Protein: Isocitrate dehydrogenase [NADP]
Organism: Sporolactobacillus shoreae
Amino acid sequence: MTQGEQITVENGVLHVPDHPIIPFIEGDGIGPDIWRAASRVFNAAVEKAYGDKKKIAWKEVLTGQKAFDLTGEWLPQETLDAIKKYVIAIKGPLTTPVGGGIRSLNVALRQQLDLFTCLRPVRYFQGVPSPVKHPERVDMVIFRENTEDIYAGIEFESGTPEAQKVINFLQNDMGVRKIRFPETSGIGIKPVSKEGTDRLVRAAIRYAISEGRKSVTLVHKGNIMKFTEGAFKNWGYDLAEKEFPDQTFTWKQFDAIAAEKGKQAAVEAQKEAESEGRIIVKDAIADNFLQQILTRPSEYDVVATMNLDGDYISDALAAQVGGIGIAPGANINYETGIAIFEATHGTAPKYAGMDKVNPSSVILSGVLMFEHLKWYEPAKLITQAIEKTIESKVVTYDFARLMDGAKEVKCSEFADELISHL
Ligand SMILES: NC(=O)C1=CN([C@@H]2O[C@H](COP(=O)(O)OP(=O)(O)OC[C@H]3O[C@@H](n4cnc5c(N)ncnc54)[C@H](OP(=O)(O)O)[C@@H]3O)[C@@H](O)[C@H]2O)C=CC1
Ligand SMILES: O=C(O)CCC(=O)C(=O)O
Ligand SMILES: [Mg+2]
């Protein structure tokens, strides 16, 4: 029996006891290595900040290979029930096989708990090796829709009666003539809804307002996928104008002013909105966005996007500030309060059990978790310890191979070093 008390939510507000029970999923591959390291850092930081007054009561819940080995199920109902009950959880990465086998357990957790936002802040830590000249110009927060899109996993395998049935329906009932090789195509379905878009864009704009950010960029490939990604853009603008008329200025409004009064009037209206501290809601087509985050990262701030685009953007942006070894995240439902914190990276199977990889991503996901719980002191202590440790050039292999004069340490030793800097 875990000694501690439940976190509760009342009218959307979290109530966090001094000894909260927090479920954790260790994860597959490198999961056990990084979890061992990270949990030591979390406990040490809480103790340093609060002494005996506060302490986390960790409660292991099973998902992935460990769950299957012990229970015969990949994602036991008990795990879903525990996360719902205890509200806040943290997890290591989970393996998803390619081209067959089980569907993603990460996606299943996000869908079944309706964790509609995948929040991934991307910032630079001084001293981290980066492939770009000015990594410090990257300071973005990704809001990735987390429950729908082609990522929902609605697919029919080539050569099956199901795929043929969908293809027949498309060809015979819908008049579709564009399936190039109907005999051998697999089919994927891409649902993107107004409700799904609204709640995600609402969360992104609310965040931008509360954090004093400058802009929210809707990233999409809406020129090509007009009724899914294009609709995401349109619904996003509509929501901003309807729900945040006094706090935002959108590029749709810019275009309307330009059409009526000319471009100069629109430019001035945007300048005025900026000077009033309004959030500029703009959009970018995804391929262009991926080149502009390299060439002009300072122009982007909060990013709201769909599931697959958000997946690609997360790793691409992480690379600019040192890679997915230092990229944190969270899956959040802002309405129920349920949240699972997790790194951006996966199970990196070739390093599993080697005590080698960088635990910073899951540790920084813990920092996000502490901030979410309003336990700001341990969050700050850990962030400062990461800054000091990187500054002292004591780093794991991923940074050491790109840094002059670095001392390479194991995953567990990196955690020791962080603890010594708390
Ligand atoms: N949320 C989740 O649980 C996620 C799960 N996955 C799953 O993980 C599995 C492997 O996916 P894959 O595409 O290889 O992506 P991974 O993120 O697991 O690994 C890709 C590469 O990223 C680098 N890397 C990853 N984690 C770290 C770390 N902690 N420290 C330093 N470097 C790191 C390594 O680079 P290098 O080789 O250069 O050293 C590694 O080879 C798949 O089954 C996938 O579905 C993937 C993403 C998220
Ligand atoms: O679920 C998976 O295996 C991959 C998920 C992923 O890449 C992500 O969420 O960033
Ligand atoms: Mg990913």
In short: The CA atoms of residues 154 and 189 lie 5 Å apart.
